[in-house]
TrEMBL record, chains A, B:
Keyword Secreted: no
Enzyme class: transferase
Reactions listed under catalytic activity: L-histidyl-[translation elongation factor 2] + S-adenosyl-L-methionine = 2-[(3S)-amino-3-carboxypropyl]-L-histidyl-[translation elongation factor 2] + S-methyl-5'-thioadenosine + H(+)
GO molecular function, a single term: 4 iron, 4 sulfur cluster binding
Name of the protein in question: 2-(3-amino-3-carboxypropyl)histidine synthase
The entry's keywords: 4Fe-4S, Iron, Iron-sulfur, Metal-binding, S-adenosyl-L-methionine, Transferase
Pathway in which this enzyme or protein is active: Protein modification; peptidyl-diphthamide biosynthesis
Pfam family, one: Diphthamide_syn
InterPro entries per UniProt: DPH1/DPH2, DPH1/DPH2_1, DPH1/DPH2_2, DPH1/DPH2_3, DPH1/DPH2_euk_archaea, Dph2_arc
The protein's Enzyme Commission number: 2.5.1.108
GO biological process terms on file: protein histidyl modification to diphthamide
Entry's family note: Belongs to the DPH1/DPH2 family.
Cofactor(s) listed: [4Fe-4S] cluster
């Protein structure tokens, strides 16, 4: 892979160059065992967006290992997390396999198959040490790197760090794990948190949720160390709140995805505001909201749609707390990142 | 409204000019009665795409007429027919109101509120007579004009026509009604069918399903009389079948919308073809199919996505019969329009 001056880091021999021949362990034997044990005739397979393309090959492998009368069904629904199970397919199959995310809630019906990255995190961890101040540090990562979490802790401790880790709340399966909507694992007694993982999606949420902490990003996929900078996001949040302060008609979105529903919050807003309308949908997209002639929207579903995709919508979209600020129920300086807790 | 040379007809005093001040009868009293009778606390409202914008005002009117403790919820899901009920919202509300389509299946839970057009069909009917050959004519229309169907029959009979009408199958509520996917009401003993309604969506389907009949379109909304011409569509169908003849890997789409599922057809293809993969989804969109590395797709869901939106997909998309032609199980000249029968 060639390297140019605009890249974030040296991508040779790292995650980016491994991307196309990366091998995942789909735990076929475990799936086949469950299929046989339950005498299943219909098996649903759900992959996250980035791995959907692998689905047919996994189905082929499973077909070769199972009886001919077992039908494998691939979910074509968008999937952005364990919060986003294809419940239609789940209810209509005997075994439902969800790949790539750790369990948000255990269930007899669902087999969760985590997919662990084979990228070596230690070279970039080594590089990230230059950004750490003092020896107290929090450590968090995503589901893809959980298999190395203990090793990373040990590695840091061997180098003299006092590593703070925590298991978040019910929404999280593992100590040190973060989700796009939940950073409870970083509620630790240290002023800096080291995030190990690919991309900026998680560390930006982490930094918004913990604005008092320095968030050092050790990204083994893009082979780069950076400091999370939420300024652009925060400016957008304040701008959206300000724009929405003049809104008369509010669309209050209740997301119907199994792990993204906060009906109590939505119903409370409707009960308090005669100019608020409850709108239900699974995918929250600009096209769907354009159908409604509202001045602003409150999204009680996935907070990352609000913060990350907000500018793509034709009208300001706020989190529930931002709504309370916009209508004057809370002061502007109370603004916090919207997080999701619990399961469903 | 100004009129230019490119318009299809004279739009003054017709549907197009009425569009913005068109009044619909939402049958509020009937809804309120049902809400009170069932002591409902949650009421779901679902509108077709073109009328979603009216939803909040209808909710306002209903709120004014009902107790304060009744919560109205607007479906934000796309809706393209009575086949496309928001089952999530339906299951979670005490009363579920579906506007704008006639019932595909009666249910205690659902109140169907038809929305009848207030456009006068007779001026354009008068104009359409010049296109009729002989006095035997079939008559069909859509749900929006069903309230004038008897009047239209009488009007034609008064002018000496022998009007053939028929109620289709279970999928259709009314005599003379057509759906985008079902033209059984035109299985009549006449060589020409008069279609009264807006746009070309329905008459093109009608002409594809009945290639032996002349389909005269009397469009009171656009104030124009035309003859349905399926040539462009048919060329696209043959081109797609030809392109798909080389396909090795097939994605077989099962649509999870309540009235669009044909699982037996999908499972049969999977059983017969080792290189076919069953993919389930509700909305069938180019983005969703791009996630799968297939050579061609068979859509067992809504046939109009295949015929009308086909060219928007990155790979050829066929109807089930077109698939059988592409793999050599049927001859090319057997090609017929894909229709949907039954309810769910």
């Amino acid at each position: 892979m060639s390297q140019d001056a605009t890249s974030e880091g040296d991508l040779r021999n790292t995650g980016m160059s491994l991307r196309h021949d990366r091998e995942w362990d789909y735990e076929l034997e475990r799936i086949v065992e469950e299929v046989e044990e339950r005498d299943a005739s219909r098996v649903g397979l759900q992959f996250p967006e980035g791995l959907k393309r692998r689905g047919p090959a996994v189905a082929d492998d499973l077909r070769a290992l199972c009886d001919d009368d077992v039908t494998f069904m691939l979910s074509g629904q968008p999937c952005y997390g364990a919060c986003d199970l294809d419940t239609y397919l789940m209810r209509r199959t005997d075994v439902f396999v969800h790949f790539g995310h750790s369990p948000m809630k255990e269930s007899d019906k669902i087999i969760y198959v985590p997919l662990f990255s084979n990228v070596d995190p230690f070279p970039i961890l080594e590089e990230s040490l230059a950004e750490l101040e003092g020896d107290e540090v929090g450590l968090v990562t995503t589901a893809q790197h959980m298999n190395r979490f203990e090793d990373m802790c040990d590695w840091l401790e061997e180098r003299g760090y006092d590593v703070h880790t925590r298991r978040g709340d019910d929404r999280l399966s593992h100590e040190g794990q973060v989700l796009g909507c939940n950073y409870a694992s970083a509620d630790i007694d240290a002023d800096q948190v080291l995030y190990v993982g690919g991309g900026k999606f998680h560390p930006l949420g982490l930094a918004m949720e913990h604005p008092d902490k320095k968030v050092v990003i050790a990204d083994p996929v893009n082979n780069v160390v950076t400091i999370a900078d939420t300024e652009k996001f925060m400016k957008q949040r304040y701008a959206s709140v300000h724009k929405a302060m003049d809104a008369e008609k509010w669309g209050v979105i209740f997301c119907t995805k199994i792990g993204q529903g906060r009906m109590e919050i939505a119903e409370q807003i409707i009960a308090d505001n005669d100019d608020a309308y409850l709108i239900t949908m699974d995918e929250v997209t600009p096209d769907r909201l354009r159908n409604f002639d509202m001045d602003a929207f409150v999204n009680t579903g996935c907070p990352r749609i609000t913060t990350d995709d907000g500018p793509r919508f034709h009208k300001p979209m706020l989190t529930p707390q931002e709504y309370r600020i916009a209508v004057g129920d809370e002061p502007l300086d109370a603004l916090e990142f919207d997080t999701f807790h619990g399961t469903w």
